[in-house]
Design brief:
About 10% of the residues lie in helices and about 25% in strands. It is α+β, with helices and mostly antiparallel strands. The strands form 2 sheets. The protein has a 7-stranded antiparallel sheet with strand order 1-2-8-5-10-4-3, with helices on one face. It has a 3-stranded antiparallel sheet with strand order 7-6-9, with no helix packed on it. Strand 1 and strand 2 form a beta hairpin. The longest helix is centred in the middle third of the chain and has 13 residues. The two termini are about 30 Å apart.
Length: about 230
Amino acid sequence: MKLLRSDLFDLNPKKKVQSVRIGEGRNHLIIIDDLFLHPRDISELMDELPYTDHPSVRRKAPTYRCMMNFPNQMDIYREVFKEHYKVYPEINRLSEERCSFDRYFDGAPIIDPTSCPPHVDITRNQAPYYALVIYMNEQNLHGGTQFLRHTELGMETSTGTDEAFDRPTTIRPATPWDFLPSEWCLYYLAQMKFNRLISYRNNLLHSLYSNGSFYQNTPRKTIVSNF
């Protein structure tokens, strides 16, 4: 039996927290740099985890996925929730889901037209309320998370079942994350940085960003969750 070190997911006491507002809706985005105390060890662990491409686990995401809780997960939720509460005091309940450890490769079989369009992370009961992404690439840093506005409708947020999702999105196989400006406007790119967390309302229209050829040999590694 292989045991994880008890301190593997310890948080860095010197982590740096900042809040920014993005888009016409002044949407709240939290960025925490230097989140984990041992990020390289976590990144190496992600190379050894068992992943699946099963649709019920990856939920249309263009990634191979492993679902796993880890120590200090709730500490991260509480700290990020506290920062969001300053902007959204009407959300006064902290909920949680298991984290997903994701590995993405350009051109992988899991990338199909349904996994590429902008999306929201809302679940069926409209809670949890926030999403987070932790970037775990130490090398091959490229792109990040793009936040998008529907060009015709002017929407930056969505329920996941409204008019923005009734309009088709043109997907170009060579560059699936470069959307046509006539359909989607990229108004903010949260750049990938090793051991960086970003968090946002899970009704914000967004997508990963890659130029369609960067992650063919080395995967894009992220930890994602809703809470």
